[in-house]
Amino acid sequence: MATRTRHTDRRGDALSKERIVEAAVDLLDEAGESGLTFRVLSAQLKTGPGAIYWHVANKSELLVAATDAVLAGVLAADPAGATPENAIREVALGVFDAIDAHPWIGTQLARVASQSAALRIFERLGRQIQALGVPETAHFDAASALLNYILGVAGQNAANARSQDPGTTRLDVLGAESELWASLDPAEFPFTRTVAPQLRDHDDREQFLAGVDLILGGVTGLR
Amino acid sequence: MATRTRHTDRRGDALSKERIVEAAVDLLDEAGESGLTFRVLSAQLKTGPGAIYWHVANKSELLVAATDAVLAGVLAADPAGATPENAIREVALGVFDAIDAHPWIGTQLARVASQSAALRIFERLGRQIQALGVPETAHFDAASALLNYILGVAGQNAANARSQDPGTTRLDVLGAESELWASLDPAEFPFTRTVAPQLRDHDDREQFLAGVDLILGGVTGLR
DNA sequence: TTGGTGGGTGGAACGACGTTCCAGCAATAT
DNA sequence: ATATTGCTGGAACGTCGTTCCACCCACCAA
């Protein structure tokens, strides 16, 4: 249980949870979710797996800590949007961009419940919902809806990043998927075929924001 | 590549992808996501791991097939809701209830992109969006928003189910989490503390539906 | 009827993973 | 100087997904 109180630095190369998490984030960013292994992590830290386990209970806790570490920066400042709507968009886009930069965060957010990172996002969203002037009874549902939508997009973005071959560009992937949609059975997938061209040219970030705005529209409609 | 064309049944106990998927679903339902193993699966089918690999490429494909198999039933019939709004609610609740009954589906939906099951949900949602009479340019965004929201809830429900100890009731879990929210730092989590009591008494299914209605409200607001 | 062919089987084995264990080291306290 | 404690790092364990391959048996040609 890493009390870490008495002496701050017994050796110059002292291990610490912070250093471990930092190395884990680097590894995740470079090699993806499957690249984080206690073996390569301990090699990078020039130690053995056992030493890491003295600071971190298990891999799950390490992933949570890594997610928190990255999202802490994004969620540090209170949103400065002029209106509550803009503040909500700001929070949502902050999370979106963080996931875009570190796709493994998306997997983590979508997989693990009641993580402190998710809770902080929930809090930021909820405060702005309160400022929106809708009935108090709707606050909980509205904040939850926004959070779940964001987590849903997070999971999908992470899945897309995971399944993408290193050599292909964004347009390649979208183009291929768009053609797949266009070639679907017309009887079974009329709608999906209709929007196939839009898939090719759409911007993930803009569409994400459009979804936020739809929920926001529904919330403000309660006034 | 399992052509499976010429002869329908070489032996009475013939293995097939269907039988494998069926056994996998049983295993997932009984033992959870970590309970599905090629070893116990092959034991249950009275064969070896190698035989399974003749019919299924890998575990990922097996999980996709299992998810599709369960959701196929839910998505078979066109929604019979009187209004497009009700039809959308019906599709969403069908998926929600399926995840409630088989939590592992939630993990799978939230994790894997462009799965055929997700595509079928998207199609059902999109058709009803078309019937809603909103501008065509908004169809893609609206259907995506609904799908992402549903997938987000799916992932969270699966995560909740995963982290729940076998002995505890729903009220225990909610009560504990509610107390945790209530005990958060008032300076940092004012909103979350405010809604803590609502967390204890809320109904997941109703809240899910409330979220769908918020998006629906935003969409119909575009008319 | 018989012999060969090949789709399908199942069990052994491989490599990698998360995790545990423990002998030892380096600072501090006695 | 010695004992204690916090911490290290490497070996080892059990399990997993996956691969390999010797074998079997239903079919087909002769």
Automatic annotation (TrEMBL), chains A, B:
DNA-binding region boundaries: 37-56
UniProtKB keywords: DNA-binding, Transcription, Transcription regulation
The keyword Transcription appears for this protein: yes
InterPro entries: Homeodomain-like_sf, HTH-type_TetR-like_transc_reg, HTH_TetR, Repressor_TetR_C, Tet_transcr_reg_TetR-rel_C_sf
Pfam families cross-referenced by the UniProt entry: TetR_C_1, TetR_N
UniProt domain HTH tetR-type: residue ranges: 14-74
PROSITE patterns linked: HTH_TETR_2
Alphabetized Gene3D superfamilies for the sequence: Homeodomain-like, Tetracycline Repressor, domain 2
SUPFAM superfamilies: Homeodomain-like, Tetracyclin repressor-like, C-terminal domain
Entry protein name: TetR/AcrR family transcriptional regulator
